[in-house]
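Q: What residues go here?
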């Protein structure tokens, strides 16, 4: 799947939005050729494996309720 970042998100926010855990932060970074120190820009696309999501219902709930984690 693809996830589109918004302004103010960090790689950690994106990891929680997609996988629901920091355990797969390394995979997210590696798969997208980014660093944890990179600045995320609005509209930046990230690929992730939805089958590895810790709790798919959390991702669905966030998406359906238009909740976006952005910790600045």
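A:
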């Amino acid at each position: 799947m693809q996830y589109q970042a918004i302004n103010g998100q960090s790689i950690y926010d994106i990891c929680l939005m997609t996988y629901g855990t920091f355990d797969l932060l390394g995979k997210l970074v590696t798969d997208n050729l980014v660093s944890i120190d990179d600045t995320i820009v609005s509209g930046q696309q990230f690929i992730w494996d939805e089958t590895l999501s810790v709790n798919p219902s959390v991702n669905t709930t966030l998406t359906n309720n238009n909740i976006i984690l952005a910790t600045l």
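A: Context that may help when evaluating the design: The longest helix spans residues 56-64. Strands lie at 2-4, 45-47.
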